[in-house]
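Example 5.3 — Lipoprotein
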Amino acid sequence: MTRESTMRKQYLWAMMLATALFAQGCATFQLTQEPFTPKGKKLAVIAGLTNPSSLDAAQALAYELTTTSQFQVMPQKQVAQAIPNYPQLIKGPYNSAYFEIDVDYAKTDVERVKQLHKNLGTDYLYVLWAPTVTTNGQKSWFTKDYAMMKVVAQLYEFPGGKEVGHGTYMMRVDPGKNQIVRDDLQRVTKELAEKTHMVK
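Solution (predicted structure tokens):
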């Protein structure tokens, strides 16, 4: 084995370890104002982009929130019926999104969020954008080549449309099942439920 290939393998292992630590250890949701007291239970999750990864994430997170939280989560089928031509593009909270998301929560088109919310009438609206999915292209007997879905999201409270929380996180996508790994969904939804005092 050449020195170059050894270094390459060490780099790949380091990257996989860093990805795993990032996925498991970083906060996925932060409140923008504390203390926080929930003012209602009705919540909808919507995609802010029209790409498949944003739609998949919205559907999976909405479903998982029904099991981990006390929120009364609007089914995605009902969301699609309520919002004409759903999903619709919403300018998101980032400057660019290639390999990494350059987050800027002030960039979101909040007026667009409020306009779409009129069709839903929920107490809370969780808007997410999943602009990129990446993979390192490496797998072995010991590791699975998970794709990494990068997500940025904001939670709005109504009436008023005030942002009460946000987060940036990654979720693994199982290439065999073509679905988001449930452990990651549970991690994201549990943290949101705990910090909003709506955990089951």
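Remark. Residues 16-25 have pLDDT under 50 and may be disordered.
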